[in-house]
Amino acid sequence: DAMVIQNPRYQVTQFGKPVTLSCSQTLNHNVMYWYQQKSSQAPKLLFHYYDKDFNNEADTPDNFQSRRPNTSFCFLDIRSPGLGDAAMYLCATSTRLVQFFGPGTRLTVL
Amino acid sequence: AQSVTQPDIHITVSEGASLELRCNYSYGATPYLFWYVQSPGQGLQLLLKYFSGDTLVQGIKGFEAEFKRSQSSFNLRKPSVHWSDAAEYFCALLSMDSNYQLIWGAGTKLIIKP
Question: Alpha-carbon dihedral of residues B24, B29, B30, B32, nearest 10 degrees?
Fold first, then answer.
């Protein structure tokens, strides 16, 4: 089945220790998104790529970076995680009109 | 201003009862509207979408939604809920002005009473 895959599903890191979350897709969609979602809140868009064209939301902290080496893969790098970065991180892909989400990575910061 | 409002933070419904979750939007043009469902600890699953045409939209898992332009609403309904429907439900609007990004409602948590 065509899908959006996120690894790992659960990630524990220490305060200030860099972490990378990964997303892959078999849908061959040209748009990919990274969202942060905190408990009982709507997802908050961090970045999106249209093909390799990178778009950073204005209020995304500098601590967050992203890479998209090819159509299928996208990575979220958190350079120095703080306690406030503990959240669910969701990857999504789209053809522009409809977004399809992966299962998410739950990040815990100790 | 473009916005989506889900007025109910929580809704409690008995198993087997009917359900309606409310969603109101503000948008200057014809809206593209979505309902997503999120089970605890999971990603978001698309239930249904409205782009144009028939204002009553059928989705997965027995859900439907009705687009009412006069009321700026896109309410989600199900005639008989099951315990497995307990989840968070998000209404969203596609903003063509903001590079095709989704504008999200705050979500409604559905609790099912046995």
Answer: -70
Angstrom distance (rounded) from CA B71 to CA B42: 32
- The distance in angstroms from the start CA to the end CA of chain B is 41
**pLDDT for the residue numbered A1:** 66
* Contact B89/A at CB under 8 A: no
Which of A97, A105, A108 to mutate to test binding with chain B, by most B CBs within 10 Å of its CB?
A97
Nearest residue of B to residue A48, measured between CA atoms:
B101
| Model pLDDT for residues A71-80, shown as the tens digit of each residue | 999 999 999 9
Residue A6: pLDDT band (50, 70, 90) is very high
| Integer angstrom CA distances of residue B90 from A14, B12, B31, B76, B112 | 32, 16, 16, 10, 17
